[in-house]
Amino acid sequence: MSFREIVIEKQRIEYEGLFDAHELHHIIDYYFREKGYDKRETRNMENTTPEGKYVEIEITPWKKTTDYHRNIIKMKIYMSKMRDVEVEKDNTKIKLQNGRVQFVIDAFLEYDYDDRWENKPIHQFIRTLFDKYFYKPYTDKYKGVLLEDTRLIVDMIKRYFNLFEIYA
User: How far, in Å, CA of 94 to CA of 51, rounded?
Assistant: First the structure.
């Protein structure tokens, strides 16, 4: 069984106001494609409530950094009280959504994701020694890359929401 080290746990981004849900999803996809991540959408649920739509999306992008390490960013997106509205910009009407958006982001560094070192107890012992003493500089480097990738996507999402402050 592979081992996951938590690098970032439950980092939250919250926003309430106008946004374009389709464009937000497109920006997130584009970012992860540019950074070389593969993506799995593990949950996509939509309900209609009297207050508006409720959408829950969970995506899990990952990137193999080596044959031993893998970066994983788990992103949960909750959109509630979402209603379609039309806003006028430069004498043209734009269709946007108004509601509340919440992101919960976790980042993990996964070791031995193919379970190559878990077959026998001696392999586990050797893996532990290598992780602790020999691979430590590499592991720290990959943690730094994961932290930077997560920080960049968080900043990109926050900047995206700041664009819509002018409509409020």
Answer: 22
Question: What does the pLDDT average to over 115-142?
Answer: 75
Find, among 58, 102, 55, the residue nearest to 82 by Cα: 55
The pLDDT assigned to 65 comes to 87
- Between the CA of residue 164 and those of 8, 16, 18, 109, 159, what are the distances in Å? 27, 10, 6, 34, 9
Q: What's the CA gap between 105 and 73, in Å, rounded? A: 7
- The distance from CA 97 to its chain's CA centroid, rounded to whole angstroms, is 21
Contact in structure between 152 and 31 (CB atoms under 8 Å)? yes
Measured distance CA(107)–CA(93) in Å, rounded: 39
CB 71 within 8 A of CB 107: yes
Does the structure show a pLDDT above 80 at 123? no
The domains of the chain are located at 3-167
Question: Rg for the chain (alpha carbons), in Å?
Answer: 20
Looking at the predicted structure, is the pLDDT value of residue 104 above 90? yes
How far is residue 58's CA from residue 76's CA, in Å, rounded to a whole number? Answer: 4
Beta strands 52-64 and 69-89, pairing class: antiparallel
Which helix (H) or strand (E) segment is 159 a member of?
Answer: helix 136-163
